[in-house]
Amino acid sequence: MFNETVRLSFPPLPPPETGPRPSMLPFLGDHHLPYIVPAVFYWVISLVFHFIDTRGLLSAYKLHTPAEHLTKNRASRRDVIKFALIQQAAQCLLGYLMADDTEQFVSPRYAVALWAQRLRYAEVFFLQWIRLPGSNLPWATYEPKGSGSMTPKLFLQGPFGGLVNNSTQNLLQSDGDAIAFAAWELVFAKALYWVLFPAFQYISAMVLADTFQYFTHRAFHVNKWLYKHIHSMHHDIYVPFAYGAFYNHPLETIPIDGIGFPICLSLAGLDNRQAAFFGAIWTFKTVVDHCGYDFPCNPCNIVCPNSVLFHDLHHQTWGMKYNFSVYGSFWDWLMGTRWSPHDSKAQAKYQKAKAMAEALAAKATSQAQSSGPATGDSSAVHI
Fold it and tell me: Mind giving me the DSSP string for 2-69?
């Protein structure tokens, strides 16, 4: 049996029906979604946190005191909003220039059949591999079919029992005998097409983007010129607030967010809709990491434990050489740059910084009261 030459036929695929996919929105092509959706998400989420912050809501979850906001930040909210709009305009311009409106898609029916065919090839390989001398697997034997060709029993009955439905999508073999994709093959093919492979693409995009962001972010800290002239702008915000997430120098925004990030998504094979969805998730995490509130049910903690605290530590003067990662904390752990915000030394530094901020704020208030009304912009006293 092992040495027999087995001739197998595979069901032919339906027509691919290749062509452009209709846009999700009648007034906007899908190729514009990857840069528009994240921008919209950014402002919606930021304004929600701005409302919470300015109304004094949920103060029990706030990481920093008003004194810290007064004494630490070197950039006003107005400056942050202005530069965030500028850098988003640059990103949108790059997105418009890089947008791909030539995406071609095949029909889901064809794509599912293609995955079923790939499963069939995998089954053939598996069956040939396990048919070793001395093996006794009756469900893996071959049965005569039609004009002497052999058909694996696995396709027709096998361990899947009632799942196999030979009348499903009946197609013809080259010798004229009918054979179909089994029902379980189609179920698995649909799961691969609609769920498993897209999940693999998203995970790949996250790994690629996180790797790219970690090493570029760390380079902006390690290289003194890059930090002094470019990245230090982002760290003018020592006490983060939501829309400060995109307070960056244009020479950082353009190569990293405007070019490098889309390339990572392209390498992961994401189409325009997938890229827009991933960009929305990335924007949500970035804004939440800068929101200044540590909520107990933060979904970002799934990929990065203590996500807000993790990045908040990086924004402190004493924590800038740690916690460079954007999505998870794997690279920080691997490269020895991870510092848990719950570490006793980190907590001691937090408490010391809060005490210093309170003292400076009290001193500034006392001086202002003794010298009368201020005549200039004295909205911040820096440590």
Answer: TTSPP----PPPPP---BPPPPSBTTB-GGGHHHHHHHHHHHHHHHHHHHHHHTTTTGGGBSS-HHHH
Distance CA 330, CA 99 (A): 31
pLDDT of 42 strictly over 80: yes
Over its C-alpha atoms, the chain yields an Rg (Å, rounded) of: 29
* Burial letters 302-339, b for 16+ CB under 10 A, else e: ebbebbbbbbbbbbbeebbebbbbbbbbbbbeeeebbb
Distances (CA, A) of 1 to 38, 76, 128, 140, 252: 59, 80, 11, 11, 65
Q: Which residue has the tokens 């904390």?
A: 329
Query: Rounded CA gap, 11 and 172, in Å?
Result: 7
pLDDT digits (tens, 9 = 90+) for 213-254: 999 999 999 999 999 999 999 999 888 888 888 888 889 988
CB 272 within 8 A of CB 34: yes
Look at phi and psi of residue 182 and say left if phi exceeds 0, alpha if psi is from -120 to 50, else beta.
Answer: beta
Paired with 62 in beta bridges are 293
Residue 49 phi/psi, 5° resolution? -70, -35
